[in-house]
Design a protein that fits this description.
heterodimer; A: alpha/beta; 3 domains; six-stranded mixed β-sheet; 11 helices; B: mainly alpha; binds adenosine-5'-triphosphate; binds magnesium ion
């Protein structure tokens, strides 16, 4: 349904800042009825990718096919297959009610008004907005506004729906509800959805597959359960009094799991990435051999940077 | 065709809803217009009493004012829409309409034109009733001329809108354009040919021919009307062309909409 080939985008240099290679040679496919997560930390290039898929940013190189149509060459027909909820945008008119928004955007997308009433009722019901049907969007809660924006994207009947950070800034409850709805929609309506997020939990909860991007490049494209293994990896930060001996250093470097050693004025930090806890004992043994004093061992939350590094290292 | 009408319908409905919902706001504009009409009417009386002329210049004044208002509304409609919607983050949705942004903006302008035309006709009618003065307006001749003149205003809207996409904050300059319109429509384009090529000038001349010289559409002739539309379309092509260039730059640099 979506085919992206060798997509590249660099933002030109501006006063005081060099050009930014926001998206660097990205290729992927998404098939019909798939809910795919695009995962990456801030500035990874998620929004840039989504906006290129919406025809709002022109790529420097590469091609985008939506349901077989070349977005760059057949913009209009290709666009009729896409709708989107963009990050940080209102996406809907605050001065119109829930119903009026749905009506207006249906018209904007060229849908026939016949049967629209029932369609609108269906989506309002689905998103739990029936009671708010005649409430202006600006008076809705943040979560409801976001739900309405998604409903507006869905009412266009487009085959592809792109959601940029759909749960960003929402409370736990609203975020949960939106995730449940997305799953339901994919199941019931065979829509193809890409959602971007920097939150592994969102992806884990909704998607079967995710692409992880970092610095504009794809670092992983895999099923969630495989990606989760990477996130399960434990990280320990060991703080040792004073510095390490050269014998300790060379032995530690031989252990794959040891990521980095940092020297501070009177202590040394060692980051260890562990899949098997036995490795930790090896590290401790090395430290004890020269009777270094271990000040603390803390388990740290795994984060993207480390996972990316890990993936990159594995090739 | 039907799709474009549906698009127009969607915008008409939206504009109408907002007009009604924010009626206090709208009422301010309506009252202002009413007062200005009254003043124009009164001014005419004063002037005519002084000069002792029985004439038809009041129609000229009223229609001249109406023309200025429409030129302004149309121009602002495009440039304001592009600016505000890009700030608030709805412009992207307009851009994703399969109709294409040109038609979308066209429908938006057409919808507010229809609504404003209606409002103005009503206010004019009320002014006539309350002031006891009746104007002799040839709507059937005026309307095609008005529409043709508005092409130039549309062009200006796209031009300024395009610049807004790139420079974001150019409010102080856009305010100036209101007064430039007054200059354009009061130029003696009847006598000096090249002035006809400026936005609004030739349309204003034809309007004066209708209201002051009491010509109708047939007396004006198809050629002149055609010439008006050719000038308008040329302006529109230039304005829209520049807009598209700005849009291209904005799309390259990821500046379309807010960022
Ligand atoms: N219009 C622009 N002009 C210049 N640089 C930009 C522009 N938009 C984004 N960038 C830069 O491009 C890179 C990718 O940005 P992008 O917004 O695509 O990332 P993202 O993954 O969506 O991040 P976030 O999680 O913060 O939304 C960043 O370094 C960003 O600063
Ligand atoms: Mg983003």
């Amino acid at each position: 349904m979506i085919r992206v080939e060798k997509l590249q985008k660099a933002y030109p240099a501006k006063k005081g800042s060099p050009p930014v290679q926001a998206v660097d040679n990205i290729s992927f496919n998404v098939s019909q009825g798939e809910l795919m997560g695009l995962l990456g930390s801030n500035g990874a290039g998620k929004t840039t990718t989504i906006k290129m898929l919406c025809g709002l940013i022109k790529p420097d190189f590469g091609s985008i096919y939506i349901d077989g149509l070349d977005l760059l060459k057949q913009r209009t027909p290709a666009l009729s297959n896409i709708s989107a909820v963009l990050e940080g945008n209102r996406n809907i008119y605050w001065r119109l009610t829930a119903k009026e928004n749905l009506e207006f955007f249906a018209g904007l997308r060229g849908l026939e008004p016949r049967g629209m009433e029932a369609e609108i009722d269906y989506f309002l019901e689905l998103f739990g907005l029936t009671e708010k049907i005649n409430v202006e969007a600006r008076k809705l809660s943040r979560g409801m506004q976001q739900k309405l924006a998604i409903a507006v994207a869905l009412i266009s009947k487009s085959k592809v729906v792109l959601l940029d950070e759909p749960t960003l800034g929402l409370d736990v409850q609203a975020s949960y509800e939106i995730r449940q709805l997305l799953k339901k929609i994919v199941q019931e309506q065979e829509r193809t959805i890409i959602l971007t997020t920097h939150d592994m939990n969102v992806v884990q909860d909704t998607c079967e597959r995710a692409i992880i991007i970092n610095d504009g490049r794809i670092v992983a494209d895999d099923r969630i359960e495989n990606l989760l293994k990477l996130f399960k990896v434990k990280i320990y930060k060991i703080i040792v009094q004073g510095s390490l001996t050269s014998a300790q250093k060379s032995r530690l470097v031989e252990i794959d799991a040891v990521q980095e050693m940092e020297k501070f004025p009177n202590e040394t930090a060692i980051n260890v990435l562990l899949e098997k806890s036995e490795t930790l004992y090896d590290v401790i043994d090395i430290l004890r051999a020269d009777s270094s004093l271990i000040k603390s061992i803390d388990q740290e939350q795994n984060n993207f940077e480390r996972v990316f590094l890990e993936i990159l290292e594995r090739g | 065709m039907r799709e474009k009408l549906l698009l127009l319908r969607a915008f008409f409905k939206k504009e109408w809803i907002i007009l009604k919902r924010y009626s206090v706001n709208s009422l301010g504009g309506i009252l202002t217009m009413y007062v200005i009409f009254l003043m124009l009417f009164a001014g005419y009386k004063g002037v005519s009493n002084l000069a002792g002329i029985e004439g038809d210049t009041m129609e000229g004044l009223v229609v001249g004012y109406a023309l200025w208002v429409f030129l302004l509304i149309t121009y602002q409609d495009i440039s304001f829409t592009l600016r505000i919607e890009s700030q608030e983050g709805t412009l992207e949705q307009l851009y994703m309409s399969p109709h294409g942004i040109g038609w979308v903006m066209g429908a938006k302008v057409a919808a507010s034109f229809l609504i404003n035309l209606l409002i103005m006709a009503i206010i004019l009618f009320i002014t006539m009733l309350t002031s006891g003065v009746s104007l002799n307006l040839d709507f059937f001749s005026l309307l095609p001329v008005l529409v043709g003149t508005l092409f130039s205003s549309l062009a200006m809207g796209f031009l300024v809108g395009g610049l807004t996409l790139i420079f974001k904050r150019i409010d102080s300059y856009t305010q100036m354009i209101q007064f430039i319109w007054i200059a354009f429509i009061s130029l003696p384009a009847n006598q000096i040919f090249w002035m006809r090529l400026l936005p609004g000038s030739y349309g204003a001349t034809l309007v004066r021919n209708i209201t002051i010289s009491n010509q109708n559409l047939i007396q004006i002739g198809l050629n002149q009307l055609l010439f008006l539309y050719i000038i308008g379309s040329t302006h529109l092509a230039i304005g829209y062309g520049i807009y598209k260039l700005c849009e291209r730059k904005a799309m390259r640099e990821g500046m379309l909409g807010h960022y």
